[in-house]
Amino acid sequence: MLPAPSVDLLKVSTVPVDDPGPLLALLPAHGGLAWTLGGEGLVGWGEAARVELTGPDRFAQAQAWWDRFVAGTDVHDEVGLPGTGLVAFGSFAFDGDAASSVLIVPDVVVGHRDGTWWVTTVGGASPELRVQAAPLPPQQVSFADGARSSTAWMAVVADAVRRIEAGEVDKVVLARDVEALSSTPVDVRWPLQRLAGSYPGCWTFSVDGLLGATPEMLVRLRDGVATSRVLAGTLRRSGDANQDLRQSESLTRSIKDIEEHGYGVRSVADALALHCTTVDVPAAPFVLELPNVMHLASDVTGTVADGATSLELVASLHPSAAVCGTPTAVALGLIRQLEGLTRGRYAGPVGWLDASGDGEWGIALRCGAVDPDDPRRVRLFAGCGIVAGSEPVRELAESTAKLVPMRDALQP
Questions:
Q1: How confident is the model at residue 5 (pLDDT cuts 50, 70, 90)?
Q2: Computed over its alpha carbons, how large is the radius of gyration of the chain?
Q3: Residues acting as catalytic residues
Q4: How many domains in the chain?
């Protein structure tokens, strides 16, 4: 039985404010929440309410709890932009049977969008908005294999390829982890600020010890329009502009990568079709270039017809072929059998929703999880889509490239 929110109406107030400084620089040393892109977005701190959820019905549990919580609030919003009013940050387990998920309503949320700044307070909080002292970098950071060594992980990839070629599954996404150990506790604001500076085209996030910079939007719901960005098909950048141009062209012609991308696009389009009157799927993907890798990308959109909230759309979309595989149930079973690690909230939905049900939910990729019992330790994750023709050594190289953002962000 989930804890019920208080029956007393909570006062929620959103008012415009003058520019208080960069969003991430406002975060306190502990307990900060963040969802930013290119300097805009939301940050928050404090906990007006919190709920943890487990099981395959975690999204339905979260929606039911949120509906009850919203009903117990009195919201005064003078700004009226996406992200104003009552907001909860959330981070959900990839596999609800293996880890817990969380929704957090902060005491204070500061937002920035289209040149407008605002602050939302819950329960009469009186925040002091000021740039905090700069975080200290981690010290003497070392990296070690996680659940499997590189050699052992390549053997798992080879096993998956054999099963694909035998017709058991079309695609399966396999993750690997690396453990980072600092001699001092990690102040998450340090890697957050570095990620935001290095990857301004990604959504930088921090929710309950999970932090990263994801290029993949699982779903954004705004005024009845749902948008999902699908990424599948990856090449590591060379650092040479001419070579990268050739690689970009080769990526758009790669049968293996186009096939992998197609599985992801179809799974998203089919999930959105359950809720939308029309779903627009681009005829061909574009190449999304990030500082360390390039991806095949497609933006799929739909007009929601059944009143589904962003969280209800998340429940239909997760897990997509981009993070699980195809067919979903078979791929998930293979992940549980072969992967040899607990993903926790890696590759699960992360983001926020508001009182109307609108929100933005990314996929927790290019991320790390701080050990709650030892803040010197951070588990880093990366995953690769395995299809027929995948080569273990190339998949290892791809996973290594995907670990670069978090590895670099933890360096002093």
A1: very low
A2: 21
A3: 171, 216
A4: 1
